[in-house]
């Protein structure tokens, strides 16, 4: 047996009385891609942080290329060739792409930054990922997908011997994902070891050699064959039998709640889109990255301006301007980036729930008791695993998403828009989100779900609106919709 480049033995980590990792062993060899799977809160991020030098283990030991490895900081890990690419983007928007790629390690010439060389080397990495954007351009204004690829280019420029990819495709479409996979395969052929963290089971089967599963901080299973049935892998993650992922959908009612007529965005990201959503109906919106999905629902929710067309609620034109006006009329939106747009993560869970409902609580001054009562009710109703006084930053991605959903549903809205509702959320927690979405439809709410996960949009939708390059390519019934029919329209 060849020696691993990275070896972990008995790694444990505690925060006070809470033990988040328990005696974990892990080996990573040169030139292999190992999937690290587990539900949110299973310990994946903590283990990754320990390897990458941002956290220190409470117990256990590590070796790197045969020598003891105890990184005191991420910089020390990077200098040794171990790089973690975080799920959350960490780019500086006012700097250029090249400056972001080489920040802190500028190429120098005669004592000054060699900008020509910096741009050349940055564009070399961008081309490896099929990202054809000038490296001199500022990051500000770039799509989330392009920013994710820049984060990856930044790591590739380090010539790492071990890469940890944490949800690298969460913001990527099909073409960008395949470009990433191609690069991963090249790196594997070059002898780079890769730890791949993802909740997308199909891509795990495509790109990884081996699967390691964590549950409640412990290593519970390893699958030597990435072709292991998805159900088997998922059941090892959640520790129970998973009978069905998507709940049965109710029949929509005859009453039209939301109607969109010839809607065109002010920035022309979408054009002349028309559809209706009935009470108790879930309309999925599908399309490739850049198709205009997010821009469309932001316009409906009042967050973006409209150039032409109109939105009707219960047959009456929506005249209110801005998100506050739409919310007052009964249209709420759960945004795709829950940390930047959905929560004040440093504040308490209870405070986040109350911020969106101050006008509904009936008093200018809220007593601590009233705040606790309101927050406790919302937390219990939606199964949030946390207490009202905890900061939202303490929660897993799935529980953060439940808080965002809970704060809006407390308003009893007529229309709920969810943009990428399960992005970065594990398979077990997804089932809980799907139950909430379908539960809304059963209560007669009109629901719109935007998702880049085709299986998801097929699983939760009564009908699917497909966008292609900003144009409405078609609307498919549940009977007509499948992965082939949706993609045919999305690529028109």
From TrEMBL:
SMART domains: AAA (SM00382). Keywords: ATP-binding, Cell membrane, Membrane, Nucleotide-binding, Repeat, Sugar transport, Translocase, Transport. The keyword Translocase applies. The keyword Transport applies. Residues 6-241, 252-492 form the ABC transporter domain. It comes from the Bacteria. InterPro entries: AAA+_ATPase, ABC_carbohydrate_import_ATPase, ABC_transporter-like_ATP-bd, ABC_transporter-like_CS, P-loop_NTPase. GO terms for molecular function: ATP binding. Belongs to the ABC transporter superfamily. This is Ribose transport system ATP-binding protein. It comes from Rhizobium paknamense. The lineage of its organism: Bacteria, Pseudomonadati, Pseudomonadota, Alphaproteobacteria, Hyphomicrobiales.
């Amino acid at each position: 047996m060849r020696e691993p480049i990275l070896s972990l033995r008995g790694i444990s980590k505690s925060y006070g009385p809470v033990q988040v990792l328990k005696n974990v062993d892990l080996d990573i060899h040169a030139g292999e891609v190992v999937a690290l799977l587990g539900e949110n809160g299973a310990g994946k991020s903590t283990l990754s942080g320990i390897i990458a030098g941002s956290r220190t283990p409470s117990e256990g030991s590590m070796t790197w290329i045969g020598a003891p490895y105890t990184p005191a900081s991420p910089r020390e890990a990077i200098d040794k060739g171990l790089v973690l690419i975080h799920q959350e983007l960490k780019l500086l928007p006012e700097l250029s792409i090249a400056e972001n790629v080489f920040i802190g390690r500028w190429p120098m010439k005669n004592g000054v930054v060699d900008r020509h060389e910096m741009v050349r080397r940055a564009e070399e990495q961008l081309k490896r990922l099929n990202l054809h954007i000038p490296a001199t351009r500022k990051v500000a204004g770039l799509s989330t997908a392009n920013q994710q690829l820049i984060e990856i280019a930044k790591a590739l420029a380090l010539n790492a011997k071990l890469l940890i990819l944490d949800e690298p495709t969460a913001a990527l479409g099909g073409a960008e994902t395949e470009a990433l996979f191609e690069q991963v395969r090249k790196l594997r052929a070059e002898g780079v070891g890769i730890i791949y963290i993802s909740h997308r089971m199909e891509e795990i089967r495509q790109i990884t050699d081996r699967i390691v599963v964590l549950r409640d901080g412990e290593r519970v299973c390893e699958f030597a064959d990435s072709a292991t049935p998805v159900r088997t892998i998922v059941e090892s993650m959640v520790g129970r039998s998973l009978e069905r992922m998507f709940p049965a959908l109710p029949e929509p009612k005859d009453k039209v709640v939301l109607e969109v007529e010839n809607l065109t965005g002010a920035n022309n990201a979408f054009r002349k889109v028309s559809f209706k959503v009935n009470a108790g109906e879930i309309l999925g919106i599908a399309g490739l990255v850049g198709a205009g999905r997010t821009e469309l629902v932001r316009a409906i929710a009042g967050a973006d301006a409209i150039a032409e067309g109109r939105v009707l609620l219960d047959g009456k034109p929506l005249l209110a301007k801005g998100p506050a006006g739409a919310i007052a009329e009964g249209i709420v939106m759960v945004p795709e980036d829950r940390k930047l747009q959905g929560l004040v993560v440093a504040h308490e869970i209870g405070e986040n729930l109350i911020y969106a409902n101050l006008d509904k609580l009936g008093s200018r001054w809220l007593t601590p008791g009233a705040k606790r009562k309101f927050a406790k009710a919302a937390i219990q109703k939606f199964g949030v695993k946390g207490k009202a006084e905890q900061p939202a930053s303490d929660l897993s991605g799935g529980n953060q998403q439940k808080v965002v959903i809970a704060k809006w549903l407390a308003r009893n809205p007529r229309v709920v828009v969810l943009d990428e509702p399960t992005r970065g959320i594990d398979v077990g927690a997804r089932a809980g989100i799907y139950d909430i979405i379908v539960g809304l439809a059963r209560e007669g709410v009109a629901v719109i779900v935007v998702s880049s996960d085709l299986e998801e949009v097929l699983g939760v939708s009564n009908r699917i609106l497909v966008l292609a390059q900003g144009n409405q390519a078609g609307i498919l019934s549940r009977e007509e919709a499948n992965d082939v029919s949706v993609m045919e329209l999305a690529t028109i």
